[in-house]
Amino acid sequence: MVASGPAARATLRAMAVTTLDNHLHRFCGGRYQAADETVTVRLSGMQAQVVRGLFRCAKCGDEQRTVEQRDAAEQAAVAAMRAAHGLLAPKEIRRLREGLALTPTQLGELLYGVPKGIVEGWERGRYLQNREADALLRSLADRATLEQRAARAGVTLPAPPGAPAPVEPAAAEPAPAEPAAV
Length: 182
What we know:
single chain, 4 strands, alpha+beta, 4-stranded mixed β-sheet, 7 helices, 434 Repressor (Amino-terminal Domain), rod-shaped, 2 domains, Ubiquitin-like (UB roll)
């Protein structure tokens, strides 16, 4: 799957306009011109082909890529991988966690000890969860599975929404005192 087309190329070029276009290459005297290349990006055991912008010297062929061009290609690849594998979007992961009334730390514990920072990275779109982690996340929507995972991980779950409040045991009333023997 290649994320390309005029819109993708325009976005990639727009992000890199402030850099090397038509700048002088110091070693050969040529000028850099915007160009595109198709690259394969691999993340979390998945891959996607995307179009990435670069600047190529018209005289010697030297190629330079900006941080913005690399970031744009990675973002396009992540979007393509999410679509191709049906992975939860960052907002969906956060909505799931908040719907279960869990902290990022608690959610990580339910997912076999995933660090809090990784869970937060998934929610912000900074990291891409693999298919296995995505399946585990989805499985937590089932209350029975959630409770089973929580019991194994030692995580205390909040009461499910709409559940009656836990009844506190009534204080035991003292037994009537027997009259003292005289």
